[in-house]
């Protein structure tokens, strides 16, 4: 047996609400990007410089890094300890997101 919760509303958000929510998401993603850059281990600086955001749509963003070794820095290898930078950035964004969303929806 599975547990499932479904929530539905007939309310249609206004264009202004959608825009504010989209702006909030962008701010959350920028917070996450900045934290990933801050936490990123630096040797040559190539990994740090490769961290970037891509906006797919108003409610879809991608944060990525453009090296072949970022995953090894994040999770480590047999010979190297992990030096996470994406996961701490995500953790910070999850903490800050509700406040950012509230501020944007209140019109601040």
Can you characterise this structure?
With 108 residues, the chain is mostly helical. The chain has one domain (22-105). The protein is built from 4 helices and 2 strands, in the order ααββαα. Strands 1-2 form a two-stranded antiparallel ribbon. Strand 1 (52-57) and strand 2 (60-64) form a beta hairpin. It is elongated and about 55 Å long.
Architecture blueprint of SSEs:
Elements: H1 15-39, H2 46-50, E1 52-57, E2 60-64, H3 70-75, H4 86-105
Antiparallel strand pairs: 1-2
Helix pairs in contact: 1-4
The description of the largest β-sheet is: 2 strands, antiparallel
Mean pLDDT metric = 89
- The assigned structural class equals mainly alpha
Per DSSP, the total helix count is: 4
The fraction of residues in strands falls at 5-15%
Oligomeric state of this protein: single chain
Total individual domains:
1
In sequence order, what are the helices and strands, one letter per element?
HHEEHH
What is the number of E strands? 2
Strand order, biggest sheet?
1-2
Radius of gyration: 17 Å
Q: How would the global form be characterised?
A: elongated
Residue runs with pLDDT of under 50 for 5 or more positions: none
Roughly how much helix do the residues carry, as a percent range? Answer: 40-55%
Distance between the termini: 45 Å
Short description:
The chain is mainly α and 108 residues long. The chain has 4 helices and 2 strands. The chain has helices at residues 15-39, 46-50, 70-75, 86-105; strands at 52-57, 60-64.
